[in-house]
Specification:
Blueprint (H helix, E strand, L loop, with lengths): L10 H13 L22 E4 L5 E4 L9 E8 L2 E7 L4 E4 L7 E10 L11 E4 L18 E4 L4 E5 L9 E8 L2 E7 L4 E5 L6 E10 L11 E4 L13 E10 L2 E9 L9 E6 L2 E7 L9 E8 L5 E8 L13 E4 L2
Antiparallel strand pairs: 1-2, 2-5, 3-4, 3-6, 6-7, 8-9, 9-12, 10-11, 10-13, 13-14, 15-16, 16-19, 17-18, 17-20, 20-21
Length: 328
């Protein structure tokens, strides 16, 4: 398992640098009643090849002082789609098989202000299937369960195809809400409402854009009221300290949340502030994860630490319980 390098700076210095960076920002919205403040860049971008000629692009809602009215999707440097502000996903069609594309998204408000680019993600479309008219089989054994009040976990049986299943498309009622790769047979759907009933189904899709019949529908109801996102939080979270070369380190271990895929990124919060992001390179751990980071050279210091995962749809999951550790 390859992990990001340990930080060589104390947390206090990292915090000071962050405050300095924020202090240099211009928070003014302009004068005269005219909206001159651009929306924030969309976050949580994900892209997934749906077939040899299509890509599914998703992102989180961007923030703005007056409200986002639309989004612009760019393929490389070309704007290829504009969608209204209420939508946060789109299928890009008419692509070439076996081709790598880079996608970014920008937000626009009513004043015509355009956000900076989201982060850029690349995706490669699969090879075209020559004269393929045979659709994949219907996904079987669809199951669903609420994961707290705002998310649901779906699992299904693998479809077969004469060539290869390229993706699975997830539908809420009659609307497509998510897409995952053909090797994945589970996913976490987020952004749901507390105490609400939902109906989901799944279709398999091959590289020639043949769709299977829809799976049977599964109905579920999310938990009522508010929760802390515990259904999407890491479990078994533990924290300890050790001393090496005259310095102290905090050691973390946890079990990744169930999402249907590997969780590669986590956010670490230390003493009530975001300390850093942890990104696993290569194959991210599925059963047990661990990480150590530098905390300083003083003994007898108490620290509170917790983590949260970045989910497959780009949103942040729930925080783990907070653990308290003391150096020395």
């Amino acid at each position: 398992m390859r992990r990001i390098p340990r930080s060589s700076l104390p947390f206090a210095l990292l915090t000071a640098l962050a405050v300095t960076a924020v202090g240099g920002c211009d928070w003014g919205g302009g004068g005269g009643g005219r909206d001159t403040t651009a929306p924030a860049a969309p976050r949580g971008l994900t892209v997934e090849a749906g077939s040899a000629t299509t890509v599914h692009v998703m992102w989180n809602q961007a923030t703005d002082d007056t409200g986002v009215t639309g989004y612009e999707v760019y393929r490389d440097a070309e704007k290829v789609k504009a969608v209204p502000g209420r939508k946060h996903m789109v299928d890009i069609v008419g692509l070439r098989p076996s081709t790598t594309y880079a996608f970014t998204v920008r937000a626009r408000d009513a004043g015509g202000n355009v956000s900076p680019d989201s982060r850029k993600l690349t995706v490669r479309t699969p090879e075209a299937a020559t004269a393929d008219r045979e659709a994949p089989t219907r996904p079987a054994r669809l199951r669903g369960e609420a994961a707290g009040s705002r998310s649901a976990m779906l699992t299904w049986g693998r479809s077969t195809d004469d060539r290869r299943v390229a993706s699975y498309e997830i539908y809420q009622g009659g609307s497509k809400v998510h897409s995952v790769g053909g090797g994945q047979t589970a996913t976490l759907v987020t952004g749901l409402r507390p105490g609400a009933e939902y109906t989901f189904s799944v279709k398999a899709r091959d590289a020639a854009d043949n769709f299977s019949p829809a799976s049977r529908e599964v109905r579920l109801t999310t938990a009522a009221g508010k929760d802390s996102g515990r259904g999407t939080a890491p479990t078994g979270f533990r924290a300890a300290t050790h001393r090496a070369d005259g310095a102290y380190y905090i050691d973390l271990t946890w079990a990744p949340p169930r999402t249907g895929g590997a969780v590669a990124e986590y956010q670490i919060q230390l003493d009530g502030r975001t300390a850093t992001s942890l990104v696993f390179g290569g194959t991210a751990p599925r059963d047990k994860a661990e990480h150590s980071f530098y905390i300083g050279k003083k003994s007898g210091e108490r620290h509170r630490v917790r983590i949260r995962p970045k989910l497959p749809d780009g949103t942040w999951g729930g925080y783990s319980p907070t653990r308290t550790v003391t150096t020395g």
